[in-house]
Design a protein that fits this description.
Blueprint: E1 7-10, E2 17-20, E3 28-36, E4 44-49, E5 53-56, E6 64-73, E7 76-77, E8 84-87
Antiparallel strand pairs: 1-2, 2-5, 3-4, 3-6, 6-7, 6-8
Amino acid sequence: MFPQEIAVTSGDLNGTLDLACDANCRGVQTYIAEQAASPDGPWAQCYIGNASSCTDTGLVSGTQYWHRARAIGAAGPSAWSDTTIKRAT
């Protein structure tokens, strides 16, 4: 089971957003998150690791960002999650 959605909330510091995927996904070895300043990209990787949550930093406060995530397991990478949009803190 891989993440279908990514939750994005305001970060604690200016220029940040907090991202979280479903932590109950089984078989996940790595999560990858990407962000873009428009829904059409270009997409830039903002996280790769085994935690299901992270903070995207270095963003421009007040600017909207789109995020998506995918997981990699023994069977390979999942499809990208649905995108979310949130204005950076």
